[in-house]
Structure formats: structure tokens, C-alpha cells
């Protein structure tokens, strides 16, 4: 079963998504409160209100599926750690850290550490 957290503003679209996911045996909707670790979820749906030219506003659902290790590394990036520090903390090589960062950057569609952290916060993947 895939554990999914939905973060973002409350509203009709959030309720509809929760109901749809709960109706399926494949998903378990998990409540993730402020300050709680997100390592216990498999996917996070982040709702973000955006305005466009045709409508006053609508919600965009961004779906980013990060592994537990990628979420862990993203958190360590947010703490300002370098590759050597991350490797030492996690007991892995710096080459493995680099590989995880490349995959993380690709998934978040970013090109720098700072951009990864900012995107992680904006999408609800990190709580600072």
C-alpha cells in the first residue's frame, strides 16, 4: 500500500483528492502535521494555489516521489551540510551522495543545492 500525504491549503480539491485516494485499496492517506517527520510516507501531493489569465485561481497538484534516502539528504542539505558531512552522517561514500543528489535534482527539476531546498520547502517536502 502506498502511503500518501496531502499538503497545502484546505478546500474542495483537497477533500476530493483525499476521498478519491481513500476509496482505493492501493493508497493510505497519512496526516502529516507541522514538525512531524515525513519519512513515514511514500509520496506527497502538494497543493499550491496559482493564478492564471483565464481564471481567478486554481490549484496545481505537484507529485514528487522521493525515496526515504532522498528525503533524508534533502533535509541534510537544508541543514547546510556538504557532501562529506552527509556521507559521514549516513555512513555512505561521497560518490553515493553525489548520485543521490543528481537523482534528487532531476526529480525536483533544479540545478543547485539552494534551489533544491527552496523547492522542497515550497512543495511541502521540507519543514524549516
From the N-terminal CA to the C-terminal CA, the straight-line distance is 28 Å
Low-confidence stretches: none
* Radius of gyration, CA atoms, in whole angstroms: 16 Å
Average pLDDT number: 80
**Which outline best applies?**
elongated
Quantity of strands, as a count: 4
Strand order within the widest beta sheet: 2-1-3-4
Strand content: 15-25%
Structural class: alpha/beta
The ordered string of helix (H) and strand (E) elements is EHEEEHHHH
Helical fraction: 40-55%
Number of continuous helical runs: 5
Main beta sheet, described? 4 strands, mixed
Offer a concise description of the structure.
By secondary structure, the chain is of the alpha/beta class. The chain is built from five helices and four strands.
What features would you describe in this structure?
The protein is 44% helix and 19% strand. With 128 residues, it is an alpha/beta fold. The protein has a 4-stranded mixed sheet, with helices on one face. A hairpin with a 7-residue loop joins strand 3 and strand 4. Helix 2 (68-78) packs across helix 4 and helix 2 packs across helix 5. The protein is elongated and about 45 Å long. The mean pLDDT is 80.
Topology, please?
Blueprint: E1 2-7, H1 12-23, E2 27-29, E3 43-50, E4 58-64, H2 68-78, H3 83-90, H4 94-108, H5 113-122
Parallel strand pairs: 1-2, 1-3
Antiparallel strand pairs: 3-4
Helix pairs in contact: 2-4, 2-5, 3-4
